[in-house]
């Protein structure tokens, strides 16, 4: 090291200046790093970080949706169990006909037509409709409708049409004609539910 200093001390100012510029140029060309490579690495890392944060948010959202779906499935399972406890597994239109006769007697309406219709199958329940035609006053028909809606096996009246009957001899008050379907519900057979 001392020999290098002795050699350098023997040079003139001009020569020392030229050697200094040469050494500085070599350093700048070969070893100097202005941070652009580091900036590029930082940019790449930030891009990867943003992508990972996006994936994290998507994963959290998916997990949240999965949890909500599990809760919904649990609620649906409870509702199905409640429905299966209340609804019979066997219900025939003759059972509904008997109930219609009983409700009609209690409400004071006159049953003109009862006709079973085609059962309507869904995933969980099967509808057992009976088409009916009744005659009575508004109050009597309203009471019949109440009895049907309060019954366990029949809870719905569909496709209702009410029309006024002409006044005949010996008829007190206005009579109405009720046409519609009384629908009973039963659980769908196991094979249907699995499909």
Q: Which key features would you list for this structure?
A:
5-stranded antiparallel β-sheet; 23% strand; 195 residues; alpha+beta; Alpha-Beta Plaits
3D structure, described in words:
By secondary structure, the protein is an alpha+beta fold. It has a domain at 93-194: 2-Layer Sandwich (Alpha-Beta Plaits), CATH 3.30.70. It is 56% helix and 23% strand. It is built from 6 helices and 5 strands, in the order ααααβββαββα. Strands 1, 2, 3, 4 and 5 form a 5-stranded antiparallel β-sheet that branches. The protein is rod-shaped, with a radius of gyration of 45 Å. The model has no long low-confidence stretch (mean pLDDT 83).
Give the gist of this structure:
This protein has 195 residues and is α+β, with helices and mostly antiparallel strands. Helix content is 56%, strand content 23%. Strands 1, 2, 3, 4 and 5 form a five-stranded antiparallel β-sheet that branches.
Can you identify the CATH superfamily of the domain at 93-194? Answer: Ribosomal protein S6/Translation elongation factor EF1B
Instruction: State the CATH class of the domain at 93-194.
Output: Alpha Beta
Indicate the overall shape.
rod-shaped
Q: Which whole number gives the mean pLDDT?
A: 83
Helix content: 55-70%
* Spatial separation of the terminal alpha carbons: 92 Å
SSE map:
Elements lengths: L1 H8 L3 H18 L5 H51 L6 H15 L2 E7 L3 E2 L3 E12 L1 H13 L3 E11 L11 E12 L2 H5 L1
Antiparallel strand pairs: 1-3, 2-3, 3-5, 4-5
Helix pairs in contact: 4-5
